Amino acid sequence: MDQLPALQVMLPLVMAPLVVIVRHPKWSWALATITSFLACWVSWLLLQQVMDGSVIRYAIGGWEAPTGIEFYIDRANAGVALLVSGLSSLVLVYAYHSIQRTVDKSKHYLFYAGWLLCLTGLIGMVITGDAFNVFVFLEISSLSTYMLIAFGSDRRALVASYRYLVLGSVGASFILIGIGFLYAATGTLNMVDLAVRIPDSESPRAVLVAFSFLTVGLMIKAAVFPLHGWLLNAYHHAPIAVTAFLAGTATKVSLYILMRMFFSIFGDDYSFGLMLLNWVLLPAAIASFLIMSLVAIYQTDLRRMLAYSSVAQIGYILAGISLATQQGLTAAVVHMFNHGMVKATLFMSVGCILYRVGNTHIPSLDRLMSRMPFTVVAFIIAGLGLVGVPLTVGFVSKFTLISALLEQGWWPAAVMILVSSVMATAYIGRVIYLMLFREARGSTVTSHGYREVPILMLVPMYVLLALGLYFGIFGSQTLSLAEGAASTLLGGYQ
Amino acid sequence: MMAFSPPFIFLLASAILAFLPQRLRAPLMLVTPVLALISIFSFGAGEHGVLPILSFELVIYRIDHLSFPFGIIFCIAAFLAGLYAWHVDDLVQQVATLGYAGAALGGVFAGDLITLFIWWEATAVTSVFLIFARRTPGAMATGMRYLIIQVLSGVLLLAGLLMHFHDTGSIAFEHLGLVSTGTWLIFLAFGIKCAFPLMHNWLQDAYPAATITGTVVLSAFTTKMAVYTLARGYAGTEMLVYIGAVMTLFPIFFAEIENDLRRVLAYSLNNQLGFMVVGVGIGTELALNGTVAHAFSHILYKSLLFMSVGAVMYRTGTSKASELGGLYRTMPITMVCCVIGAMAISAFPLFSGFISKSLILDAASKNSYYLVWFALVVASAGVLSHSGIKIPFFTFFAHDSGKRPAEAPMHMRIAMIITAFLCVFIGVFPKTLYSILPFTVDYEPYTVSHVLAQMQLLCFALLAFVYLMKVGLHPHELRRVNMDSDWVYRKGIPSIMPGIVSAVVALNQWVREWALKRLGRLRLTVSRYASPDGPLADAWGVTAMVAAVMVLILAILIFNLL
């Protein structure tokens, strides 16, 4: 049991080359899926251990921190690791059929190996307690993500991957610069140690530069509004399973690192007092959800519409962060989970549509209900969750966020969230209407009967949907987890 | 506990419904309300189903003196609507009907504001499908407008309840009163659903656009749920007296000139709501009794009227007054039922409208709202004219349209006859209704003065209608105005009347056109920027993105270092 933290990262990392050796498309899929489920189980066990507020510090190779590298697991990141590995498992099950349409059979093993590496990187970023290690895992996940995106079915995926590569590298090097400055100013890379040494650093200017670079670098990786350009094409053209996985996890992990940095390493007095960060983050957040929701209404492609909506949702999370209060952080964390589940479900159902219809052009979805009822029902319920209809997870997080904003008296921001909810109703409602009611027009090619997708695609989608509904109705469970995470983050390192 | 509460019975039934064949669906639509009714009676007063969620205590199922009568009438209305819609073989409508009725019951039985909000939104989301189900582009557009307004009301409610929670720390749904910004917002939310003046457009827009059976369902629930919430939260708020008085008066103009009979009924629905709102505003025991009683009888006779006009529409395909007439020859039963509904809404003695409206009128005069009382009397005359006479007259009598449709289908006739029977039964035995009202009733509707006053009013209104028809002044026959100069006093009023009517209508139209034009222009601008290849949405090139990053980091660095 003591070695669980190491297992968490090593499992997918070791299995990835094994998948390459196996090579067989079906077996490599099975191996990757089993590995992912095991990782998920490990994170579940870890979460159980830290739920009471205790902390697991695991020194790699027995080299104690701050000299060595350590994994640092507490209430704030165990849940995020579970989200990442859980989504990865479900989407991997789903990916079996979905990938066959886009990726050549001879390259499947590469795809699954890349996936495991990406999982390694994302989980590693979350649970590591070392700043430089964050960068290493970030690079592992980024490089494998570029590869996964490039697997997309047409050549636009290559361009999308390339653009993400450029932007992602800029972001990563900013983060590296930031870490470098931090090291120069404090002489340590261990996060707990950093938190101790930053306040009495001899060169506050270096700390300040580090802070700025880290913020912007992480904002790129998290796709916060003006820096979101890479996300749209990447989500649009990547294989849909990759999109479902990334949309649920990648940006969330960066946001988690952002929170860890703001609150635990630098401390909220520094981030939000000295730096006046809420004057930067809140406008970005509001612009995010207002502009992106508006743009989503006018999209003609379902995947692109959801990509814009993702950027908008990131805005909600950022708004919660920028409050820098217990309740605001709770809202941010809970929305991280909830939106991860909802958006993954949505992209999975879109993947089902893509699997049968062959495109995701919105006007070609007329009366899809009669042909693919299960897919459409999943899309509708998840879509309502995105809007924030009561009894869905979206309601829990929006409710928490709005009451957190009102608690601080940030009236206008709360109103704007409501406005953007109305916009979300518009862009989701439009698609739902088409799927349910509009008569197919003669010119479209939808007159062929579609069948429902294979069961292996439906089951993970419905599992996730059921989870979403469960946490929507019994929201207190995720909420108490998020509250724990928030108080841990705000409390800093012990 | 919760699973046996009426809203959940309805929701469960609507979920089961989706998997049943049509021959089982129609009976289920009838069984569900009966089960819900049994649930209401077997649970009895008290708070059942308390559910702790998110550190709140949600009260799912509260039966007390106020929610009890509303629960009963909602179940009855759902039953009658289900019977009336026996022939409908459309899964969307059937699921929506049950879900909608369940949501409305949920709203009535909600013991706290959060539960209320959930059901509040649920009524909007479920009911809109009754409009969409017509499956025409027009219905789609109307449905969207309806949905937006309804959701807006929900959003206001949510904002209001959050603020209220912050002020008081309580989410219990008890008397609120207009004391803070939060309660004002909640008041506005209720007002939208209750179709307050200037917030009423959705009602006349949406109800006539729904399917034939959909309109019958719609007419029963949303607005009455709003009346209930007003009675619960804002009883005795004086402003409501005047709002209600305006509500009773202004729809008359529009109802008089409207050609679509279902829209006439929608206007008269608005006018009837006015009476209930006045009752809430007065807020005494007598007045609240009147409000509840009026809501009860109103649901019945308004359903009946919508049913009979719907039956006509079902057979002839139109509900336009100008295309109907003379149908009494072939649809006698529908005609009789329609006339009973008309007499009930006009408050003829021995009909349900009489015994409930008198409570409100008496409450107004007892609390010295004489002006309001007068307005209500004038409005009552108007009701007789546009609903009591116009609906049956232009449908079944008037000039012969030449149409000879068959009588309404058997199940529609049964539904109408039962409803008509209830209207008369309540009118003849008012004690049955009075016994379930919130407060003990010490009131005798059948006194000589009550009956006489009402008959006088009715007779003069009838006389006016007959006279206007004879001289061709009734708004529909406005083409020629024949005036005899000897009768000055007759000349005065009728010549002003059309003027006022057209002025009000023109103003209304002008405001709407102006707003629409503005909105259209705004929409164009927005879509130019936000369309897939507009500047906001276009995927930025690598150079642009990197430039954005550079500008941002430079700005932050300079800002921080200086």
Can you tell me about this structure?
The complex is a heterodimer of chains A (494) and B (562). Chain A has 19 helices and two strands. Chain A has a domain at 279-488. In chain A, 63% of the residues are buried. Chain A is mainly alpha-helical. Chain A is globular, with a radius of gyration of 21 Å. Helix content of chain B is 72%, strand content 3%. Chain B has helices spanning 6-17, 22-43, 67-84, 91-109, 113-132, 137-168, 181-193, 201-206, 212-220, 222-234, 238-257, 261-282, 285-316, 332-345, 352-366, 370-396, 410-428, 430-434, 448-470, 488-530, 542-561; strands at 46-53, 56-63. Chain B has 562 residues and is mainly α. In chain B, helix 9 runs antiparallel to helix 13 (285-316), helix 12 (261-282) packs antiparallel against helix 16 (370-396) and helix 13 (285-316) packs antiparallel against helix 17. Chain B has a two-stranded antiparallel sheet with strand order 1-2. Chain B has two domains: 1-230, no CATH class; 235-478, no CATH class. Chain B has 21 helices and two strands. Classes of the chains: A mainly alpha (494), B mainly alpha (562). At the A-B interface, helix 6, helix 8, helix 9, helix 12 and helix 16 of A face helix 5, helix 6, helix 20 and helix 21 of B.
